[in-house]
Amino acid sequence: MKTTSELKYLLNTGWKLPFFTIWTGQAFSLLGSALVGFALIWWMTETTGSATVLATAAMFEFLPKVLAGPLAGTLVDRWNRRHVMLVADTVTALATALLIYFVWAGNLQIWQIYLVMAVRSTAGAFHTPAMMSSTSLMVPEEQLTRVQGLNQLLLGVINVAAPVLGALLLAFLPLHSVLAVDIGTAALAILPLLLIFIPQPEVNPASKEEAAGVWEDMRLGFSYVWRWKGLRNIIFLAVLINLISVPAITLMPLLVKNEFGGAAMEVATMQSSWAVGFLVGGILLSTWGGFRRKILTANLAMFGTAIGLLMVGFAHNIAFEMAIAGIFIAGAMNVLMNGPAFALLQTVVADDMQGRVISLVLSLAGAMTPIGLLIAGPVAERTGVSPMFLFASLIFIASGVFTYLNHNVRNIEDAYETSRTETRNATMVGSTPLAGD
Q1: How many CA atoms lie within 13 A of 204 on its CB side?
Q2: Model confidence pLDDT, tens digit, residues 239-273
Q3: Which end of the chain has fewer surrounding CB within 10 Å, N or C?
């Protein structure tokens, strides 16, 4: 929902050059961060050989984003988003620089890695909603789905390339030199942010008067989501899907070993098939852009994901090749579901609420991963992994049916169009309506 001043900015300067200059810098920064992550995990693996150490490191990387997310999103909506990204990128680079010093001095310890991981993760909790909410102010609404497709494609490329590049660099360079790559990629992200203007949302004066402080702002964010039935239902679906599907994908190596009798090569083949599907989905979404109604693209992709997971679940009775094809379909459909879903949030959520809403979605969905794994582990020991894929496919089918039948979800974009005029009128009388109420 862009203001007149922001639309003039887009018309006068064009959106592609400024946005993609920032986007490219951020892409290099993400790659650098992925290289650091791989290098540290491999160092801890070689040094300790401890599964507990690796699991603890994963928690220090994961938990700060989940716990800090709601507060970070609230602050992003209060602060200048360009400044938030600048500080977050700078803090990330400084944390890596501290780690480089520890390595260079020859006294690197595990607790120091945990600390740096936690700092970098916390910085990411601020950076992600700041970048996503800035995107909706810099990119025309009809291009948001394509941009999300590019984001998903980028993640797929990084997931495939970072381990390979990290392994190559570690083969020829010492650890501190590999970590130094992250400093250079962070500089590529910081420089465009110093030079390029990013529009800021116009805060509803009525909302500004209501928000006496940070915690009140956070409460208003939760209230905004809770009162909007369509948005609330979409977030519930995201949480449910993550709770059920992520553990199944995570336990894929166990599926290959126990139910197909496969070894490392077969596991790599399955994981590569997922990654290639992710890449294909990103290419398709970034070029096609999806249907005009973003919710329709995401809805159909739910059924497509269900088909892919169903093929994996039944494949142990048929053929390993069927599982490879199914996981490829699931990977591609995952992009076609998540990309339009995030573009939908960037379109329908009020600009001055996007930091809070996006952070809430990421935190709630992310929190489901450890919960789902805690449940899935014992279940998989009893039933095997294949039934988990079958159950996940049923969840996607149920979610797709619910999305199609539920009026508040299916028509969320229509409600948003109607609310534009209502919001402008409400601003003049001191209240903010919610689309779908």
Answers
A1: 25
A2: 899 888 888 887 887 788 888 887 767 877 888 88
A3: C
